[in-house]
Amino acid sequence: MLGTQLLLLLILVIQSTGQLIRSFEMLIKTDQQFECSNTTCLPYSLTKAVNIGDCQVICLSQTQCQAATFHYSNSNCELFDNIVYQFGIMLNNIDTITMSVISGTRFSVGYNSINVQNRTIYPLTGFQPLNLAVKDINGDNKPDILTIDRSSSGMGVLLNRGNRTFFPEVLHTTGSAPFVVAVGDLNNDSKPDAVVSNTGSLAIGILINAGSGTFYPEYNLTIGGNVNPITIADVNNDNKLDILYSFWSSHSVGVFFNDGNATFSSRTSYATDASPIGIEYIDVNNDNQRDIITSNSDSNTVSILLGKGNATFFPQSTYPVGISPSSLAVADLNGDDSPDIVVTNSVSNTTSVLINRGNGSFLTQVLYNVGNGPSSVKIYDMNNDGYPDIIVANSNSNNIGILINKGDGSFFNQATFSVGANPSAIVVDDIDSDGKSDIIVTNSGSNNIAILYQN
Ligand SMILES: *[C@@H]1O[C@H](CO)[C@@H](O)[C@H](O)[C@H]1NC(C)=O
Ligand SMILES: *[C@@H]1O[C@H](CO)[C@@H](O)[C@H](O)[C@H]1NC(C)=O
Ligand SMILES: *[C@@H]1O[C@H](CO)[C@@H](O)[C@H](O)[C@H]1NC(C)=O
Ligand SMILES: *[C@@H]1O[C@H](CO)[C@@H](O)[C@H](O)[C@H]1NC(C)=O
Ligand SMILES: *[C@@H]1O[C@H](CO)[C@@H](O)[C@H](O)[C@H]1NC(C)=O
Ligand SMILES: *[C@@H]1O[C@H](CO)[C@@H](O)[C@H](O)[C@H]1NC(C)=O
Ligand SMILES: *[C@@H]1O[C@H](CO)[C@@H](O)[C@H](O)[C@H]1NC(C)=O
Ligand SMILES: *[C@@H]1O[C@H](CO)[C@@H](O)[C@H](O)[C@H]1NC(C)=O
Ligand SMILES: *[C@@H]1O[C@H](CO)[C@@H](O)[C@H](O)[C@H]1NC(C)=O
Q: How many angstroms does the Cα of residue 188 sit away from the middle of ligand 5?
């Protein structure tokens, strides 16, 4: 083998306690080492390793490690953080083996720390939980859960006891066939209020927080059409939280402007493509004015309405996604400080990633396969490596998928975790206040909530 350059692809896999693994792919050069004559190409670290695999593991555990050389005779494991100079000029040495990380194939340090295997199921008294929100409702600094139990026409409140247990669900009556819930302080009393979309009664319902974890009876804002997701945000910059909703049946998004005490006397709307279902309100073109982004279930597109800052918006620009887009999430995936778009496509069983060019225009979607009937998506850094990951609920596969970010806004294949029947919505929050984010899922087919705790 002396002198030959053997190019091999080695996949190193470490099975953790959880289902997730961490790995990277390395290029191997047997019987070779770097020819190094100055400090720029010296190893940054020299340790002992039991064997080649051990040396790889040490490299894997250090984010800056780009290459490792193992010496059989003295068990030296040399780690390199900068190999830009070295590869053209290798030195033959039968005592060594050199391995370099193939860029883009690395699961970062911390991947191993994801352990969402500890699933706990919480039964509900309501039926068909379709959506949820997580927020401290009763002011005890513990995040509580609000659910939307569609076929019970109710909003459930599960108050957190703090030890991974909850008080039994208390149901509050909503309009018929509620679909989503959002929370925000609508009357400036420092207590989060709830806003629900009632797709049966064609109205937005408002439940004002009465303190101690209870809500006053719902009052409603009649829409006269099918309202879908809602987001609560100050749209006209008057420091009062308004209600922004995707108006599914009229191919638009609407805003109810808050008078200041959770009364809403004026309303406007903006055109989108057909049947907006997901909605986000976030600045995508870095002009400090927030923009509206929707996923449009009947036109298979996303719409971007750039904001002018005074509750007026430019006409939409649209981008194709997969078939029957459902949920939408917007966050910077590739570290360029411009938010990117992720959409679940419920009929094509894929997730679209649209990377922002930096000015609120987007590159053509990149598609990733997920499970069947993806219904909900969130973006969150699950492995604390600084790169946000994608979490999807695969409604017809009865699991959630986590797609780990490679660091550049591209993603590894999903790792799946079973939850319950027909997961419909997900939230990531530290529900047990242990400093690690947990995944909270409504299972609309089994009438319960699954929480995947990270230990
Ligand atoms: C160090 O050596 C490498 C080749 O081994 C060379 O390409 C590089 O320019 C050298 N750096 C300095 C600072 O001399
Ligand atoms: C799962 O969570 C429970 C409750 O906190 C805890 O007692 C148990 O040790 C955890 N199991 C694992 C495998 O982490
Ligand atoms: C959780 O705390 C409640 C009261 O705060 C207590 O009744 C219950 O037994 C605790 N449950 C567990 C599993 O520790
Ligand atoms: C509005 O709320 C009232 C009181 O809860 C309820 O009786 C009524 O049916 C609701 N109307 C609509 C359109 O949701
Ligand atoms: C909200 O209440 C605070 C006092 O708690 C007050 O300073 C602020 O002006 C109020 N905001 C609005 C928009 O009324
Ligand atoms: C508060 O709400 C009432 C109706 O309930 C309305 O008459 C009043 O003008 C509102 N006040 C403000 C400051 O918006
Ligand atoms: C909103 O701002 C834009 C751009 O600054 C301006 O052209 C437009 O007239 C404003 N519209 C309203 C209703 O203030
Ligand atoms: C955004 O940037 C891209 C790439 O730099 C450019 O091609 C495009 O025309 C820009 N779009 C707008 C709306 O400025
Ligand atoms: C998507 O999943 C559904 C089940 O939800 C299945 O019937 C269908 O064949 C899948 N479609 C594709 C394109 O894989």
A: 6
